[in-house]
Amino acid sequence: MAELPVIDLSSQDRFSTANSVRQACIDHGFFYLVNHGVDEDLVKKVFEQSGKFFSLPIQDKMKLARKNHRGYTPLYAEKLDPTLITKGDSKESFYIGPPHENLNQWPLQEDLPSWRSTMETYYQKVMSAGTKLLSVIALSLKLDEDFFEKVGALNESYAFIRLLHYPGDLDSSSDDIYGASAHSDYAMITLLATDGVPGLQICRDKSKQPQVWEDVPSMTGAFIVNIGDTMERWTNWLFRSTLHRVLPPSQERYSVAFFLNPSKDCMVECLESCCSEACPPRYPPIKFIDYLEERIRVTYS
What is the mean pLDDT of residues 118-126? Predict the structure, then answer.
């Protein structure tokens, strides 16, 4: 079982918090975030609404099939680990993107009356917690705490909510079928809420064979936060985007991921505090949207 650090976002000692975050991101790439300001009742409401949507008949869900990276993705439609030869991951999901783009798809008001308002409120609240956390991450990288604002990362951030449902009663006789196969996230950071049903595992050293997987238990009232590939790229591999997966749960499981991405036009390039003569930049600068589109293409091909 992974013993992950717990970061208190409400702590007044920002430099001590920043040091703890730095250590967590170097050692694990994962940590728990408490006192993040997102109300427990709201989180509960999001899970209730998510459950209502996923229990609709498949033909109703397919009316909102994913387009423009928003909407419904059915079971087995995605394979996060493209090296597997199986049919896909045993989960269904629903994406909600940035409100300012007006591209989101919503269930009909008469079917799910408070669905949209619940999701939009959650988006704003988690965005606010994530922005606060990014200022601590900036400090942890020896940067000004408003660094990510200054480079335009949060100017119309391209963040997404992803509602996830793992049915749990599927035929999991195949060893290679996962709830979510091994992957790292594309984002800067991911803030994950779970319903407490186990299944999430991390592999701290992706280069080591055989891979060692550790269970990540959920913690009441905490987000599980992980570093994504965009942040790994920005920090020149100082902060690790850790491989993780979800085992096929024996019982039904729900989770809600919030992928905090920079704005589409933001240039992701090696931070000055993360490179030196001995450790030159590993990647050329890239516009975030170009990076994201390439990653999505591989996942859904």
Answer: 98
Q: What is the token pair recorded at 180?
A: 């979510």
The mean predicted confidence, pLDDT, of the chain is: 93
Stretch 33-56: mean pLDDT? 98
Strands (E) across the chain are located at: 6-8, 30-34, 71-73, 92-96, 160-166, 180-183, 189-194, 200-203, 214-215, 223-227, 243-246, 253-260, 267-268, 286-287
Contact 160, 259 (CB under 8 A): yes
Question: Do 164 and 255 form a contact (C-beta atoms < 8 A)?
Answer: yes
Confidence of residue 174 (pLDDT cuts 50, 70, 90): low
Q: Mean pLDDT, to the nearest integer, of 7-29?
A: 96
The rounded distance, in Å, linking the Cα atoms of 216 and 248 is 15
Q: Which amino acid is at 265?
A: D
Give the whole-number percent of the chain exceeding pLDDT 90.
79
Phi, then psi, of 258 in degrees rounded to 5: -120, 110
Distances (CA, A) of 75 to 29, 91, 92: 28, 5, 5
Contact 215, 200 (CB under 8 A): yes
Cis peptide before 57 (omega within 30 of 0): no
Alpha helices by DSSP H, listed for 32-114, are: 40-54, 58-62
End-to-end CA, the chain? 33
Helical segments of the chain, H only? 14-27, 40-54, 58-62, 115-140, 147-150, 229-234, 288-300
Q: List 189's β-bridge partners, or say none.
A: 227, 260
d(CA 223, CA 235): 23
